[in-house]
Structure formats: structure tokens, C-alpha cells
Amino acid sequence: MTDLQISLLIAGGTLVVGVVIFNKWQEYKAKKTVENAFTDGHDDVLLSPDAPADMPQRQEPVFAEKEFDAAPAAKTSRPSASSMEEMLATPENVLAEELSATQKEELVEPLASELPPVVVRELPVDELIDCAIPLEFDTPIRGEKILSEIAELKYVGKKPVHFIGQRDDGERDVIATGGAYTSIFAGIQMVSRSGPLNELEYSEFIMKLRAIADNLNAHPDIPDMNKVISHARELHHFVAEHDAQLSVNVASNGAPWALNTLLAALEKMGFDQRPDGRLMMPDGDGGSLFTLSTNVGVSEVMTSRLTLLLDVPCVAPSRDGFGAMAACARSLATRLGGTVVDDGNQTISKAALDEIAGQVNEFYGAMAEAQIPAGSLRAQRLFS
Fold first, then answer.
1. Interval 225-267: pLDDT, tens
2. Hey, which end of the chain has fewer CB within 10 Å, N or C?
3. For residue 146, what is the domain's CATH number?
4. How many Å apart are CA 204 and CA 329, to the nearest integer?
């Protein structure tokens, strides 16, 4: 081996070692960036319990159709909370914040002392979104017998099927063992995100329902197929127009972030990791407020972009899901040295946010007018 070959081997080995050292250094810097971002040195309205009491109130933003990309340009946060979950005010807290002391005395005290609490029960068969078919009995039938007959009919295609019973006093309720019912109502959901109820699904539903009716000696009142399908298509039109998802992104201004450290910090902020890899911010009531994606595969160790997504019709306006999501995005951008951007990697201006806020009010108003308020059980079923 010549002196030249030996020299080349030494130079190549030195280069390889240098590349390995550089990569390790980059990973170390990425990890330290995330660790430093979530140290106590950064005050945050989302996490700090000592935020000033006179902080300006957050304005109510709203959105419109399909998918929007937005991020706030001005600081508009609700007064402090020690965690994201505590930041999400209940409707009662929102009302209390907006009322003056005099108004509270005038409104809250009479309500508390004179009016009983109102409990609204939502039954699994909803005549607005289900095709509800009554089956009447000649004599009352025990709940356990009914349950044994309907146990297998849970879905037709992808459309869920539910049953409720009516007692001899006219009250309707979930069918239960030990109860006696003069009739039952079978409901198949007419619309979901997968599409409206079609003729084949309806025919299969009726066939199975007739078999149940025969076994129970019931008399079903079957509606006209054309009317049911027409109603389903009208409802699907509404769902398609209001199937809105709103996203914001946080893009790194420099080096990517170490994923393992980032995930641990996000979980401490209140995010729960889902099986699909996304992180979900709980709404404090067993549901989801918004989700966060790292935009990388399971084998990746770093990411340079986070995406927060709000499923608009499934979150009640009183929870201000967009305001909470935008505040979280701003907090992450500040902590991690990033920028809140849209899907085209453009920073979102305050003017764009104000425009979306106007669309949001129209969106929620249209849903409420259609008797399908955002965040309600009806909305969650239709937009599943």
C-alpha cells in the first residue's frame, strides 16, 4: 500500500468520525432546545398560576366551511390557569366572568333560589337525525325479552341502530331489564361523515326490523323509502357544508426539535397520546378539545413542524376551542423558537384571523338554527 493510499484512508476515517460527532452534537442541541423551552424560565398564560388578574378577555373567534388555517396575531388569552384543562372555562365560568357584580346579584341569586335545575336527557333515538320507526305491541312486553331480540341489530352497513321503549304512561326511555313497554322505537342514523343512508341500507334495516317485529308480535309503521332517503340527503347536505376542521402549525425557525423530549413536555402540558400517534387535549368533560400531530413517523427522532387541529362542529362554542388552540400554538412557538403558520408556511396576519372570526359566528349560528348546535350529542353523532 502506497503512502498516498494510506493518507487517503486516514483522511476518509477522519471525515467519517467528524460527521458522526456533528450529528450527535445536532441531536444534543435539539434535545437541549426542547428542555430549555419548557423550563420554569418561560412564563406562559397557559401554564402559569400567577397571570395578572386584569389580563384582557379573549374575543370569541369562529369559523366557517371545510378547512381553515389560522393563527392569532394578538395576545388574547383568558385569565390564568395552572394547566390547559383549568384554562378551559365551563359555560358557568364564562357567564360569571362577563357579568358585573350587580348583574350577578340580579341574575344568579334568583336563578339559584327560585328555579330547579334543568336536566336535559338525550335518548339514543333522535327523530331529527334518525329514521325512527315505531313497533307497537298488543300487550306490554318485558324489557329482557325485547333486549334478547334486538341484541344483534347494532349496525346496518356503517349506520348505527338504536332502540328505545315507551311505557304505558307514555314515557320513553332506554329499554331495560325489568321494565314493561307498550311499544318500541327503532332508529337508524340517516347521516354520518361516510355519507347519507342509501336504499340498500334502508332495505336491509327494514328486513331485519320486520323479523324482530314478527318475533315480538309487534306492528311496525314503516315510512315511505323515498321520503326517508330524501330527508337523509338533505341532512347530508347540511353535514357536508358544516364539516369544518381548523388547523394551525408551529414551524421551527432553526434546528428541529428532539421528539422524545418534546412528547414528554407536551404530556405535562395536558396532552394525551392517542393510538394513531396524535396527541389530544382533553376538554375537561371526557371529550377532545383539539389534537396535535408531530407530522413524523414512529421511527423519527426529531421534528420541525407541529400541527394543531380543531374538529369544529364537535366542540361547543362555550369552550372556545379555537381560542385555546391558538393560545397553545402561540405558547409553543414562543417556547420552542418557532412561528405559527398556515399549511402554505405563511405567517397568519391579524386581518386573516378577524376574517375567520366573522365566519365562525356565522358557522355556529347556522348550526344552532338547524337545531344541531356544535358540540351537542347530535353534532358528535353526525360528524363521527
1. 999 999 999 999 999 999 999 999 999 999 999 999 999 989 9
2. N
3. 3.30.70
4. 47
